[in-house]
Design goal:
The chain is mainly beta. It contains three helices and 25 strands. The chain has one domain: Neuraminidase, CATH 2.120.10. Pfam families: Beta-prop_KIB1-4 (PF03478).
Length: about 350
């Protein structure tokens, strides 16, 4: 089993979001996650490699869930359809969270409010111009993370992880807001998404392969992160068939922090290429493992995360209580929402010895 956990990820990372001025979907809305409010949530997953492929999901407090292909958007209500159509036309769109759509154009990151329930004009906030560090780039974005539900809150932090060595963050509500730029030196972090930890007040990134976590303090700025080596424990006993399956997969790792318990989990996905569609490989998740992390770096395998569930997209990971409309009243599962797949994994029912 150690081979499966210690190997570097064999994942060929998907084409990142190329920020350019274009009205077409090829701008790449990459797993755009929008929490619009307590009543309505929208989750959009579009293919960053181009083409009119993707799904749109709407979730309401009444636990009504609807999943449609892009072609089916005309079946949505008038207001929903209007928002989805606007998102398709948005230039330089990047996947993000909290009911705000980040866009990047001409070196400026802007945040656009997205709320299906408001008829009024939605707010748009321009952040300070980006500064590109030497030997870095700020056109290809891995993901954007936001610490609060609104960038107008005084303590809100917006972080941008670019493909490669640069990581940047700012506090948009402060009068002297400016980007704090970090240049990472370990290549294992170059393609991984950033997570904002409210519990630790840090930017956290899981290195490729999942063996290392880097944390950057939001108060004491430094290019040198606090590094933590993970020790995987309580590993399930695998049958030979399961072992061969996992060894044939490539992997990706996702850090997620619970909004209710502040627990940190790392979710490891084992994926294989299911088909080649117009020259583009489409992946399928064959198995997942969830590990609960502690402050000492112990990563304990678990099939019980309590009365909460985890959502994974290309740009973000969420951990919600089962009372949330996103969880639909179903505790202890992981849901993967991606342009290639939309499926649940019930953690308690996972079997590794068959």
């Amino acid at each position: 089993m150690s081979l499966l956990l210690n190997q570097h990820s064999k994942l060929c990372f998907r084409k990142p979001v190329l920020v350019r001025s274009s009205p077409h979907l090829s701008n790449g809305l990459s797993s755009l996650s929008l929490q619009t409010d307590s009543q309505t949530r929208v989750l959009l997953c579009a293919d960053p490699c181009g083409g009119n492929r993707g799904i749109a999901m709407t979730m309401r407090s009444s636990r009504f869930l609807r999943t449609l292909s892009f072609e089916g958007w005309e079946e949505m209500s008038e207001n929903e359809d209007k928002i989805c159509a606007e998102l398709l036309k948005e230039m330089g769109a990047i996947g993000s969270c909290g009911g705000w759509l980040p866009t990047l154009k001409d070196g400026v990151l802007r945040l656009r409010e997205v709320n299906l329930n408001h008829e009024t004009d939605r707010k748009r906030i321009s952040l300070p111009p980006l500064v590109t560090l030497p030997h870095c780039q700020t056109q290809y974005v891995t993901n954007v993370a936001m610490s609060t539900s609104s960038p107008e809150e005084e303590d809100c932090v917006v972080a941008v992880k670019f493909l490669g060595p640069q990581l940047s963050f700012c506090r948009p509500a402060q009068s002297n807001s400016e980007w704090i730029n970090i240049r990472m030196t370990d290549p294992c972090f170059f393609s991984s998404p950033v997570m904002l930890s409210k519990k630790n007040e840090m930017l956290r990134i899981a290195g490729s392969g999942g063996q290392l976590i880097g944390s950057w303090d939001l108060q004491n700025h430094s290019n040198n992160p606090k590094l933590q080596i993970l020790r995987f424990q309580n590993l399930p006993k695998l049958s030979e068939t399961k072992r061969e399956l996992l060894e044939s997969c490539y992997t990706s790792e996702h850090l997620v922090e619970s909004i209710t318990t502040s627990e940190t989990f790392i979710v490891k996905l084992y994926m294989k290429t299911a088909e080649i569609d117009k020259g583009i490989p489409r992946k399928k998740t064959e198995a997942i493992m969830v590990f609960r992390l502690d402050e000492e770096g112990n990563a304990v395998y678990t099939q019980d995360i309590g009365d909460q569930s985890i959502f994974l997209t290309n740009s973000e990971a969420f951990c919600f209580p089962s009372s949330s409309s996103l969880s639909l009243g179903r505790p202890n599962f992981v849901k993967i929402v991606d342009v290639n797949e939309d499926r649940y994994f019930k953690l308690a029912k996972q079997k590794w010895d068959c």
